[in-house]
TrEMBL record, chains A, B, C:
Transmembrane segments: none annotated. Pathway: Pyrimidine metabolism; UMP biosynthesis via de novo pathway; (S)-dihydroorotate from bicarbonate: step 2/3. This is Aspartate carbamoyltransferase. InterPro entries: Asp/Orn_carbamoyltranf_P-bd, Asp/Orn_carbamoylTrfase, Asp/Orn_carbamoylTrfase_sf, Asp_carbamoyltransf, Asp_carbamoyltransf_Asp/Orn-bd. It is an enzyme of class 2 (transferase).
Length: 308, 308, 308
């Protein structure tokens, strides 16, 4: 991977992705061996929107590499409130840190920020834009459990607004994966995403009913359908209920089916599923650590190479 | 101590307690020697309620063992707001961390959480329930200053609602300690607590006036009487004033009397007392560090043993 | 430097200041060499007011010395809300930490706090009072770029309310520096500050127009004029506009002019200036790290010496 920053999963070739996943697997096999790897490195966490799991996962990743983190804290208590621009904020924090992680509500914010900083910057979500490390940990989890060659993946839930889903679907076109999309009609893939998938030559089919495809799936990736997408509570309940899964639903699935979810979940997956071998969503959350360790380590390597 | 988690002080035998206090004393004697002890360990701080001193004390404890901490941050900015269950939150953070500290407003939350995680979990307060590390540091402070054999302890203030007091009183029944409880009538020990103390064979007496017992005490443990427990301000002032101490009050005490307080205090102990040799409440707060270092170290030891 | 605490820049002699700046320069030349310097040291961050850059800068400084930090968090979620005094809060945190950094809204708070703690304490701003590490990093940036001997410095903007400006002006009287103050009439230096500068024998002149002096300057230190200082928006705009600089304004300046700003800026300096060699304000922000590393290291050295 010869990148200075990670802004979008689309900037990564199949070889880039595999390089990150390979290093993540190497790390996950013996995480303790990496503890002194980045001793003395300081990572700046710049979250302009609240985040629990992404922030904690990057925080853990840097610390398990032996480095330190500094946290901007909430926007409410920051200089941003005094009218400071994003460009100024990231340049100041660059003066403290060896790499930056940025989450921002505005699409394009991360790309813009890279025009002002020299240290590696990782996009941890920019509004309706990209969240590439989520995609990498999703791919890692699929590869570890079902492989990424000749597999059938179902992606279910809110396919219209789900940033995670669009990014994952695009990344999967790098691999020999058949993609099935399952959603209510009102939450189908946006036309532009569908167009891009077809252009890339991906094998894509859309469904409104999980039963049409469940028995074929190697992976089922479930996402949340948000209440606020619906005009009234009744319609929400009716629709959402059809896209929730429990152990009865999974009777029709392959024994080897891997069930994933980016979390947090509300009621898309019944708690009883947690006890089955299908459930890989907590493992998936855990995988954020080795994947982000791998990515940070490789970006820091590139930065060192570039400055030599 | 052969425990996987610490949920309640009542789960600890006298031998367990003494093992923790012994190791705390060993640590306190040369804290620098423990700096590399838990290099590479990550502790997850999950505070579902605000906390300054307990959170900072655990944070310091892990860092003085050479480990790292990751902090969930406030509930307001977390996935909890999106409807995530406690069981899911702790399982995700378990995926990042080697041990967890949990504070939660609901009684029983810590016990419940241990059903979902495999790493050691320490209860840092669950509503009206338990806060066992407070009890351990209280016992440690008593042992260092007055001993825990053949001593007379007075516990004063809000004995009705004070979680700290109930837990301490129960733990003291493991030792040869005479307990005197001093409070206004409206804030006496709950019947169930009094019953349990008598059942355990403890030597217990109750008073409304500190003067009845002060001269006999080796330790006086003062707690705060909260304004909100009283229907009107006047009644509060009248009652609270009788349970505040200053240097004049302490003239009647033994020279060796140890005065303790879980802090924060408001006006229960006059600042002039701070300058006397009686005052051990800041030392008591400090003792949270070696006691929590000892406890975390022992739980991590047990976890390693269990996984071998 | 033989100080236990740093409360005000005025407590530092020229020799003290130079000792800190010399060590900062030594650190900045090879920051990695200092990574193990304060292994095992814990710094308590006590910010009773929000702060991004000062807090992050101290946090980074301690971590780049190999130490750890513990953060009190916001006042809203702390024991302060329960009515705890500042004296109690700092004594409790002293029980966890080897040194303290304190920001507080009340002038004199830091000085008062030193009466209660034995560990080194650094004032990181006390209301309208002092913020001495800002002054030190300003001096360091001037010395690195223009020197502190036989130089001409212009200080522009809000000279009436600017704590940073008063402290810097006082510190500059230790050096062979000519000081020019540029501001609207309504925001000129307070009479008491002007008096002190004259008493110290400083070479001081005041202006309402930057053009009168710009071509003579080696350093231009710009500060923000705050909207809330003016009765109405129109008057603010008219006045503020005259104290904003862009590249056209700088045509009249020396090629070697150093432009500084304590940040955050709003529109006092046009973004186009960032691209010029004049712009040193991001370097200035960065300099907070080596300067605070030097200061913390020296205070910790003094504390060790004192306890031996």
């Amino acid at each position: 991977m010869r990148q200075d920053h990670l802004i979008s999963a689309t900037q990564l070739s199949r070889a880039d992705i595999e390089a990150v996943l390979d290093r993540a697997a190497e790390i996950d096999a013996d995480v303790g061996a990496w503890q002194g790897r980045r001793d003395g490195t300081v990572l700046g966490l710049c979250f302009f929107e609240p985040s629990t799991r992404t922030r904690m996962s990057f925080d853990t990743a840097m610390k398990r590499l032996g480095g330190r983190t500094i946290d901007m804290g909430s926007v409410e208590s920051s200089s941003v409130k005094k009218g400071e621009t994003l460009a100024d904020t990231v340049r100041v924090i660059e003066g403290y840190a060896d790499a930056l992680v940025l989450r921002h509500p505005s699409e394009g914010a991360a790309k813009m920020a890279t025009e002002f900083v020299d240290v590696p910057l990782v996009n941890a979500g920019d509004g309706a834009g990209q969240h590439p490390t989520q995609t990498l940990l999703d791919l890692y989890t699929m590869r570890e459990n079902a492989g990424l060659d000749d597999v059938t993946v179902g992606i279910m839930g809110d396919l219209k607004y789900g940033r995670t889903v669009h990014s994952l679907a695009a990344a999967l076109t790098n691999f020999d994966v058949r993609q099935h999309f399952v959603s209510p009609e009102s939450l189908q893939l946006p036309r532009s995403v569908r167009y891009d998938l077809h252009e890339s030559g991906a094998q894509v089919r859309e469904h409104t009913d999980l039963d049409e495809v469940l028995s074929d799936l190697d992976v089922l990736y479930v996402t949340r359908i948000q209440r606020e997408r619906f005009p009234d509570e009744n319609e929400y309940r009716k629709v959402a209920g059809e896209y929730q899964i429990d152990t009865d639903d999974l009777d029709a699935a392959k024994d080897s089916l891997t069930v994933m979810h980016p979390l947090p979940r509300v009621d898309e997956i019944a708690p009883e599923v947690d006890e089955t071998d299908h459930a890989k969503y907590f493992e998936q959350a855990h995988n954020g650590v080795p994947v982000r360790m791998a990515l940070l380590d490789m970006l820091l390597e590139n930065a060192e190479g570039g400055s030599q």
